[in-house]
Amino acid sequence: MQMLIGAGMFGGLLAVLSLGVPIAFSLLFVALVSLFITGGGWDALNLISSTYWSSVATFTLTSVPMFMFMGAIVSASGMGARLYGALATILDGVPGGLAVATTIACGVMAAVSGSSVATAAAIGGFAIAEMRRRDIPVKEACGAVAAGGTLGILLPPSIPLIVYSVIAEQSIGKLFMATLVPGGIMAASFAAYQIYLALRRRAKGIITDIPPRTRATVMERVVALKDIGPFALLIVIILGSLYKGLATPQEAASLGIVASLLLAGLVYRELNWPRFRKILLDTAQSSVMILAVIASAIVFGYVMTTSQVATAFTSAVGNAHVSPWVLFISINLLLIFLGCFMETIAIIVVTMPILIPVVTAYHWDLIWFGVVVVINMEMALIHPPVGLNLFVVQSVAPDVGLRRIVLGTLPYVFIMMLVLVLIAVFPGLTHLIS
Question: Model confidence over 230-244: pLDDT tens digits?
């Protein structure tokens, strides 16, 4: 009976989403209807207000708007454009240098923003324009930005990882450290693929450096390092304080906000009141949207728990004696499927209350599992039909059709799958830095 209730809830959720209802309202509507039917009518709904409030009124989640605020400051200050320009200069002459610069810039931006969408938006406009100016195929340019942007939820401070830590009751600091090696492998794999594409074009006699120009000198490359320095400072402040145990994630975010404000306002002098007001409004809107999704999804999970759906699912898996690899593959297929219809944070908050008891029963490490989940969410960001980064890239390159963008990102989905297999076979990679 409980399994039928669960199937009905997920079916109803997909049906409401297909009508174009925002994810937060879809989750809340299905949860309310399900609780009304299974929980005993109107009396059961009295618990919703307290559950909705308590789900987001936690100290841990305060780091979400704080990291988003810091990312908004960095994006609005022009630091992203300087970072990309500096990396493009340093990598000048390297095969696929612009695409590799895009990947590195996205990884660095990810380390100070925590948002894939913000990363793709901050780097995408000028990166795609510059690659197209050099006659690099547009699908490759768009694919590099869309895939590079996904590093925002793998590398710390990852907002989806913060949400996962709350649900799984795991240390945010340990989860952040666990992503560094997989994130580095992912970025290096993207860069290797981009170098391969450039070498293949060169072997075919296709020149992607039009018009011909003088290569950057050694002094120009050295001077370019000054635009990387501010990001290095922010990364040291955030990750260094977390790694050394000097600050909590909330304190590290506060330090990052102060440092980014000083850099944007005093060093670059690009932070005036109208721009700062827009940063505050954008941060507030994005934070409310994310917290609304979290609250609604937790209510959805609460209904599944009170109706014994999660318990029935865990018992069914345990009684079926499914092998660990079959279970692992099934979980990944489920997450990829849900990524076709739902936003990443919603997927995490809806599925983890059901999957974590199963994972715990199999004695899997929840830190490692968090990295697995986030890699799946990376794929969800760039595979159709609801990959958010696909639409972000299209917004900064409106003349490029969605089909060409998707074709450019599909190889990166395959690369992510390979890295996921590597993490599954060698789980110790998530604990090399601890």
Answer: 888 888 888 788 777
